[in-house]
């Protein structure tokens, strides 16, 4: 059976681990945090739900002891600071970039073959940073943003349609930012029927707008960024890797000409399996969607340039 490590035992990391233990995705899940005792406490708390929820996964919590993460198949990076109300994901770059770079290097010392899932924000830039600083093959670095944004898109569509979310398909590509993500309304369906043929354009536009600020809306309510959907979305991605599912999920990956972009990590639909992301799926964007994607890529690229200014890459 597999081993999974989650770096950062805060709201998102602990929720992600908790979903994964309940799905028994691994025989061992290690939670690591820099804050003394937090990961140990949350891991033990989770283990004590084993007989109640019916799983046998062992959960181990450690404070900065990377040796305990050795030989992990997948490592999920959630360490860093979350958004506060009024902040964009991009505002976090100064602090999170240093943390993510450091964490990725430590992880690989003990798990040189791991697939790395990046959740820390600004996620597109953190994924690019992990790719550039670890030198890993591009298929082993996957940023988690599009799965979450798509899940929010489907949630808002289900509310607008008064239909179960599981009957709805919808994909969000582009950057994982309030102004950079692109909910692809044209491709969204309700059991195969285009939602644009059911909802009027005003309602569709509102769903798209609500999706784009989905995270910010929650940050306003909660005073910090959300965790249930981000944690579950991270777990869904890990599940697709561990179980070699070959699911198509929108993920932040390194492009080399696909969707007209190069030298960037940004959200596109990819096939996920045991070797990481296996291939990019071409959705054949129309001119308007491609223009939005190019604009999104420019915004992500300008954020990435901060990494150079900070001498991190
Ligand atoms: N090594 C390990 N853990 C660290 C480090 C580090 N160098 N630096 C910070 N952490 C830990 C913190 O101690 C904290 O427990 O990361 C955890 C982050 O948890 P929260 O503050 O609860 O933040 P959370 O809501 O989980 O968000 C984490 O995910 O969705 C993104 O934008 C969000 O970037 C943020 C990240």
In terms of structural class, how would the helical and strand content be classed? alpha/beta
The number of helical elements comes to 10
Compressed to H and E, one letter per element, the order equals EHEHHEEHEHEHEEEEEHHHEEEH
- Write the CATH fold name of the largest domain: L-2-Hydroxyisocaproate Dehydrogenase, Chain A, domain 2
Count the domains: 2
CATH superfamily annotation of the largest domain: Lactate dehydrogenase/glycoside hydrolase, family 4, C-terminal
Proportion in helices: 40-55%
Mean pLDDT: 97
Uncertain spans, ≥5 residues at pLDDT below 50? none
Bound molecules: adenosine-5-diphosphoribose
* Number of DSSP-assigned strands: 14
Strand content: 15-25%
* Biggest sheet: strand arrangement: 3-2-1-4-5-6
Q: Distance between the terminal alpha carbons, to the nearest Å?
A: 35 Å
CATH architecture term of the largest domain: Alpha-Beta Complex
Global shape? globular
Q: Roughly how many Å is the radius of gyration?
A: 19 Å
The main pleated sheet reads as:
6 strands, parallel
**CATH classification, class level of the largest domain:** Alpha Beta
